[in-house]
Amino acid sequence: MRKNMLWQNTVMVTVSFIAGVICFQLFSLEQAKKVINIIDKRILFETMPTIFQSIIPVAIAFSVVLLFATHPYFFHIAKIAIAFKTCFFGFSSVYLLAQQNELLGYGIWWFPFQFLYVFILVLLSEYLAATHKVTKRKGDFSLRPVMMIVILTGFVFALEMVAISYIFK
Q: Which residues have CB under 8 Å from 23's CB, separation 6+?
């Protein structure tokens, strides 16, 4: 069963990333900038974004996944939200690679950290989905794994801030 979930999540992330790449090819550069400006403005910045500007996209993604993954009937909407996040990850990756002067930002900042956020979101949603099944049988729920995921997210966010400060020197 776990092997099946691993394959499902891997396929979901891969297909969503490729869909983002394809979507970028369908948009003009101006349209792509408008989409990026709506979802995550940091990609378009020429100066270092503030912590508030950096935390908003991460907080929104985690809030949506938490909102839907904590409910046993809306768990699949959380997966769709992760797929949209991954699709935007692919979309914006192609945008950064198309800008020749953004290769350092892509390699050090954008790709590794967005991939880690997607991985953490999948981990969080799978854990919350598993707890729905466990609580029906046993009636116990542990916040410890959720707190570990929150701490991991905070650590990744702190590393992202260091990478952003290095890039925008």
A: 87, 90, 91
